[in-house]
């Protein structure tokens, strides 16, 4: 084997070893870090939507939000502060609005950008043994310092 061939294979080995080390060092890419928060948000909401959910379950969602978080939903009244949205969750929970009929939140598509994710999702519901996949709904999430700073609903 020539010196050039040995150098080539040695370089190739070192490059592949470096890739394995980077994959194992546990560092998330920007996109991955946003997706982790988004996935957690939907998992926690699904927990809250169940009939046996507790106030702590709501608190867990709000741990994902910045202090100055805003929820914007023009079809349902406009802009809500963090506290307004929290109060709405608590009110719905106390009034039995979370009855377990939402069994899943199906992510249909995502576009990840710089500190933002556009999501197309559907709620999956079950009633009297019949499962229904709802219409697609668009939501934009904005992030700051690893937390959700704004949710804008486009449905």
Order of helices and strands: HHHEEHEEEEE
Count of extended strands: 7
Helix content: 40-55%
Structural class: alpha+beta
Strand content: 35-45%
Q: From the alpha-carbon coordinates, what is the Rg to the nearest angstrom? A: 21 Å
Mean pLDDT: 88
Oligomeric composition of the shown chains = single chain
Largest sheet: 7 strands, mixed
First CA to last CA: what distance?
Answer: 65 Å
Number of helical segments with 4 or more residues:
4
Low-confidence stretches: 5-23
Provide a quick synopsis of the model:
The protein has 155 residues and is α+β, with helices and mostly antiparallel strands.
Please characterize this protein's 3D structure.
- The chain has 155 residues and is α+β, with helices and mostly antiparallel strands.
- The chain is 40% helix and 36% strand.
- It contains four helices and seven strands; from the N terminus they run H-H-H-E-E-H-E-E-E-E-E.
- Strands 1, 2, 3, 4, 5, 6 and 7 form a seven-stranded mixed beta sheet that branches.
- A hairpin with a 2-residue loop joins strand 3 and strand 4 (116-127).
- Helix 2 (30-48) runs antiparallel to helix 3 and helix 3 (55-62) packs antiparallel against helix 4 (82-94).
- The model is unreliable at 5-23 (pLDDT under 50).
């Amino acid at each position: 084997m020539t010196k050039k061939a040995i150098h080539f294979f040695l370089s190739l080995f070192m490059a592949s070893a470096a890739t394995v080390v980077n994959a194992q060092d546990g560092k998330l890419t920007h996109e991955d870090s946003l997706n982790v928060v988004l996935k957690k948000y939907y998992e926690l909401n699904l927990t809250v939507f169940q009939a046996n959910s507790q106030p702590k379950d709501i608190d867990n969602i709000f741990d994902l939000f910045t202090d100055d978080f805003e929820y914007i939903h023009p079809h349902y009244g406009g802009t809500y502060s963090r506290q307004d949205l929290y109060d709405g969750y608590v009110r719905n929970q106390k009034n039995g609005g979370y009855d377990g009929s939402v069994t899943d939140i199906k992510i249909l598509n995502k576009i990840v950008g710089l500190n933002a994710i556009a999501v197309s999702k559907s709620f999956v519901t079950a009633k009297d043994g019949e499962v229904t996949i709802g219409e697609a709904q668009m939501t934009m999430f904005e992030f700051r310092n690893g937390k959700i700073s704004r949710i804008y609903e486009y449905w």
